[in-house]
Amino acid sequence: MVKLLQVDFDFTGPFGEEMAEKLAGLAESINSEPGFIWKIWTESRKDQLAGGIYLFEDEESANAYFKMHSARLKEMGINEVRGQIFDVNIPLSTITKGPVD
Fold first, then answer.
1. How far apart are CA 62 and CA 85, in angstroms?
2. How far is residue 48's CA from residue 13's CA, in Å, rounded to a whole number?
3. What is the value of pTM for the model shown?
4. What are the tens digits of pLDDT across the range 49-85?
5. What does the alpha-carbon distance between residue 7 and residue 97 come to, in Å, rounded to a whole number?
6. Residue 56 burial by CB count (10 A; 0-12/13-18/19+): exposed, middle or buried?
7. Is the pLDDT of residue 16 over 80?
8. What is the C-alpha separation between 56 and 65, in angstroms, rounded?
9. All domains of the chain, ordered by start, with CATH?
């Protein structure tokens, strides 16, 4: 069963196009993570937050990615990484055009 991973953390930038330019390589590398399906990148310059919403094939893949990604962010100086794994209600998400099929 697919799992959704929600991640966020305090972040002072860069944001927008500058973030896209600086993190394009990281984005490409995420595509090869085991069990990875897709990611939506999130950011709030106003609230100084960044993160993402990920879809994984299973809970094991989501947990492994979160553990690895948290360690990577800590190496970048981000001390607190918040993450939550959710089940996805496929029938309702399909009705509301969620990219889950």
1. 7
2. 7
3. 0.92
4. 999 999 999 999 999 999 999 999 999 899 999 999 9
5. 22
6. buried
7. yes
8. 9
9. 3-95 (3.30.70.100)
